[in-house]
Amino acid sequence: xxxxxxxxxxxxxxxxxxxxxxxxxxxxxxxxxxxxxxxxxxxxxxxxxxxxxxxxxxxxxxxxxxxxxxxxxxxxxxxxxxxxxxxxxxxxxxxxxxxxxxxxxxxxxxxxxxxxxxxxxxxxxxxxxxxxxxxxxxxxxxxxxxxxxxxxxxxxxxxxxxxxxxxxxxxxxxxxxxxxxxxxxxxxxxxxxxxxxxxxxxxxxxxxxxxxxxxxxxxxxxxxxxxxxxxxxxxxxxxxxxxxxxxxxxxxxxxxxxxxxxxxxxxxxxxxxxxxxxxxxxxxxxxxx
Length: 289
Description:
Blueprint: E1 2-6, E2 9-13, E3 15-19, H1 31-39, E4 42-45, H2 48-57, E5 64-66, H3 72-84, E6 89-92, H4 104-113, E7 117-121, H5 126-134, E8 141-146, H6 151-159, E9 167-172, H7 177-188, E10 192-197, E11 205-210, H8 211-217, E12 227-231, H9 244-256, H10 261-272, H11 276-280
Helix pairs in contact: 3-4, 7-8, 9-10
C-alpha cells in the first residue's frame, strides 16, 4: 500500500499487481506469483473458474471478481475505486501475461491515469516461448496478436505487413487456422512458418514448413489446442531478386524501346540476376510461367 496526500489529508492507496500464470503446465507457477496471490486483497480474473483451479491447486483462498472483454469498462472503474480505497488487486488472465493481447491492458492504463502504483510478477508467455522454439530469427520480431475476424480488415492487416522484415508472431484459434494459413500463404508466398500448439502441455507440437505446405497440411481440419504462428519476415532487400516473369517484362520493355531480343535479354539478365537464355526463350509471351 502507498501513503499519499490529498489536500493535506493522508490517504492509504492500494496497488495493482500484474501476475503471470502458467500457459498450460501448473508446474510453471512461480514462487513470486503464488506470494502475490496469497498477499493481495482480491483477484481480478478473466475467468474466475480457470483461476479457481490454480488457487485450489496451491491451497489459496482469495475473493475474486471477473474482469473480461465484455465487462471491462464497468468493472475497471470499480476495481480502480477499490484500489484507491486501499486494496491491493492481483490481475490475472486465463493463461500467460495479463495486459498483453488481453483486456487487462485497459485496467493497467486506468490505474496509471489515476496515479496507482503498478507492480509486475513476470510469468510464462506463449508468444515468446513460441518464438524461442520456432527456429526463425529472434533478434527482431513483431507481435501481431489475433488477426481481425472481419475479412476486409483481415486482408488489410495482412497487406500492411508485406514489407515487414522482422519475424511475425500471431495468435489463432484452432478452427480458424486453415483460413489464416491460406491467407498468409497467398500474401507471403513461400515464407517459413512454425505452427506451435499446446505449449508446455502433453501434446506440445511444432510444425515447421513453408506457408503453402502448412496451409495444405491443415486445409481440412485445424488441430486441437491453442495456436501460435511464427512467420518469417521479408528477406532484406539485397536478398530479393525479381521473378523470371518480371525479368521477361523488363526485357520486353527494352525491346519496345528498340533493342534486339538478344541485347534486351542480356541487359535484363544483368539487372535481375536471371540467366539470359531463360529470359530470351520467354520473350514475346504474355508471362514466364
